[in-house]
Amino acid sequence: MGISPKLRAVALTRTFGRGASRLAALGPVDLDVATGEFVCLVGPSGCGKSTLLRIAAGLLRPSGGELAIRTDVGHPAAMIFQDYGIYDWKTVRTNVRFGLDVQRVPRKEADERAGHWLARMGLADFAGAYPSALSGGMRQRVAIARALAVEPEILLMDEPFAALDAQLRTILQDELLALTQATRTTTLFITHSLEEALVLGDRVLVMSARPGRIIAERRPPFARPRTGEVRSAPGFTALKDELWELLRDEVDSGDGGGGGGRGGSTAPHEAVAP
């Protein structure tokens, strides 16, 4: 194709500990993510999905191989966590502006960019509020606004909606779908929900039990621009079931031997529920 990927991992591995306590957590992983692509990672608990994202974010160093993000302009990566990662002692506005302040963006420009994303995420009326006054869904909107305000090259999302109830999770999935399609933000997204992966992703990558490797890839056959209506599209449930079949053996073996039978984790079974 002649165009280098936005993110490339080659023979990437990560281990923790030394000697007899050494634990192989990830890899080897080979992965390319194209500019503007939305890639979802699914896999059993403990398979190294979050480790991969933390390496991409620069929070961990790989033990072997390499991961590189092609930087054109601006901020290489921004990460959004399941627990929001926003500061309780800062207002919504200063939380959204935080990354811009770290980058020493001039205050006037920072305020304008923060204001834009506050409005875009429906938070303008709460700019002066503190996170303790917000619902979980609104806190996650603050986290998304803060990440996008720095105009990252790639957005890294680690199960950002996992703590939300089903109805709110669906709403935020649809909002994120519209947002990333409008901005064409390259996104690497971790989820336990197969439905979420199929709604959001251009590609869904299935990871093995620890140490996590990519064992399968599926491309949801739903055209862009896409809406949440794909949940009722022909073939959606069949593709979700196919992904679960790919995952089943990995989930059974992916909990370090704890639990047996169904792997000791309810998340994948919740993921394939209608």
Automatic annotation (TrEMBL):
Residues 7-234 form the ABC transporter domain. SUPFAM superfamilies: P-loop containing nucleoside triphosphate hydrolases (SSF52540). Residues 254-264 have a biased composition (Gly residues). GO terms for molecular function: ATP binding; ATP hydrolysis activity. This is ABC transporter ATP-binding protein. Residues 250-274 are annotated as: Disordered. The keyword Transport applies.
